[in-house]
Amino acid sequence: MTHSVAELAAVLATALFILSLYWMNDPKTARHGVTAGVTGMLVAVLATWIQPAIVHHGWILLAIVAGFMVGVPLSLVPLTAVPQRTALSHAFGGLAAGLVGTAEYFLGLTENPAQLTTFRTSAIVAEVILGFLTFTGSLMAAGKLQEVKWIPQRPVTYPGQNVVNIGVLLGAVALGVLVVVHPIAAWSGQAFYAIVGLAVLFGVLLIIPIGGADMPTVISILNSYAGLSAVAMGFVLGNKLLVTAGALDGSSGLILSIIMCRAMNRSFGNVLFGAFGTVQKTVATGEQKAWKQETVEGAAQLLEQASLVVVIPGYGMAVAQAQHKVRELYDQLTKRGITVKFAIHPVAGRMPGHMNVLLAEANIPYTALAEMDDINPEMPQCDVALVIGANDVVNPAARYAKGSPIYGMPIIDADKAKTVLAIKRSKNPGFAGIDNELYVQDNTWMLFGDAKAVVGELVKQLAGGGGLH
Amino acid sequence: MIVGFLTLQAAPAEAVPVDYWSMVFVFVLATFIGLGVIRRVSRLLYTPLMSLTNAISAIAVVGSIVVTGADYPQVIRLLGAVALFASMTNIVSGFLITDRMLKMFKKQ
User: Alpha-carbon distance A379 to B36, whole Å?
Assistant: First the structure.
């Protein structure tokens, strides 16, 4: 009887999870998705909990309470910290899979060797390798995003790095094969510990050479791994619901990874093993053209006279926490009948969709947010392109500079606008160490300073002037 | 012995044969459904999508509940309890932060 209940619950939960993701196709219905997800989760958890095999309840309750105590504060982080929260949750997902896999293996080894069939042991090994490498890899990613002091922010590379990384992974897989072939030999337990150790090590080594601009891709890949480790856990436990939910998570991570890679014109392998941002063969530029600086008054006037303004935000806007001031600017301009759009590059920010969430938080209607492919054809009609804390995603060098690390990356065509206003914190080149010739174009005017302060002054100017002169 | 017929979802300690090929079948189909559904997700919502799929894949919690609550040695159950805590954290923070972000997306 209770088994049928569990089966029914699993089917119901699967349907609810698929619906939940389906409703994410539109911001209008998206919140139903959360309701469906929560309902599916409750049904599945309760149906599992009432099974006769569950005889101890104390630790379950304790772990659930502890999960709430940590989970609630984690859901309240500022939105600029969402990338590291996401990385942390991938770490938790990996850890759960790794631990359950370990538990299942030793349970088989000590209690019930018949359970360690070839198929099941293979699934356990896959679960443990994926789980633990996702655990430490995601912890490292979260640490880098949070800018934890003892984790180097800059990519760390050394000669032979890829050989070492692949060697560690192959070592883990080879030991895994040995354990699958001899699951209950005298040394199998030790070999299993070694697999765990190598997977933990591999996760760390994998993320060390990765820099900030690659984080959107890396987070997506880790998302995929976390999903796959849940799938492996489903195979181990013979649980179809787990397999389904894990596959949904895994395919989501996969699609996002592909979109991020395309948006940077890079391959998976290149992101993971390419150590972007270290090999900066700066292309010798002939003569250095000079910046043209603009005053806040002049910039405000330019904006006032425009009929279409396209704002191009980047990670710099998030760092300066300028999104609320940007909203005030949006209000000032729309009040004057000026059309304001936001051009969002897929890899702007530190995770997929990061900019959209930050702008939505500042109450900018989502109808004003435009994807790169939709806005680019409009750029020649744009009177002022206002670049706020974005750099590489508007660098025209991506179109033709073959030696440049960003060559081939699709960009937002800010340079095609009639006038470009760029707010930049300092006169240093961007993340990739590449000069951005957009800044020295004839129709570009620079505003140097903290994004929040500069946009604030623009707002003050527009509010004070009232558009009367 | 009605339980004997219902081979699925049995507690792992009982040596019940699991039909692994049907699991692989489920995996392949679910992946295709996932690819189809996720492809249609609004590009505006990729950040909440990630926290939502994260919460959903924390369904791994059902595995942890079995390991923690069954009549197993204490060490094994302890591993299960830590895993249960990790998954629960993801469920709670994942759903809450997804909803918090989605609330912010307004048309006007």
Answer: 32
A204: nearest Cα among A94, A77, A67: A94
In DSSP terms, A371 is beta-bridged to A344
A interface mutation test: which of B16, B23, B89 has the most A CBs within 10 A? B89
The DSSP secondary-structure symbol of A53 reads: T
Instruction: Give the C-alpha distances (Å, rounded to integers) separating A266 from A156, A224, A315.
Output: 20, 18, 20
Strand-strand pairing, A308-313 and A419-424 = unpaired
- A177, amino acid identity: V
3-state secondary structure of A374: helix
Query: Active-site residue among A26, A214, A331, A392?
Result: A392
Q: Angle of helix A30-49 relative to helix B74-102, nearest 10 degrees?
A: 160
Q: Which residues of B78-102 are buried (b: 16+ CB within 10 A; e: fewer)?
A: bbbbbbbbbbbbbbbbbbbbbbbbb
For the beta carbon of residue A135, count every other beta carbon within 10 angstroms: 28
- CA count, 13 A, side-chain hemisphere, A280: 12
Alpha carbon distance A255, A163 (integer Å): 28
Q: Is A211:A276 a contact under the CB 8 Å cutoff?
A: yes
With a CB-CB cutoff of 8 Å, which residues 145-174 of chain A face chain B? Answer: none
Instruction: Return the structure tokens found at A246.
Output: 């894990």
ipTM value greater than 0.85: yes
What is the sign of the dihedral through the CA atoms of A166, A404, A427 and A446?
negative
Measured distance CA(A318)–CA(A87) in Å, rounded = 18
| pLDDT tens column, B19-78 | 888 999 999 999 999 999 999 999 999 999 999 999 999 999 999 999 999 999 999 999
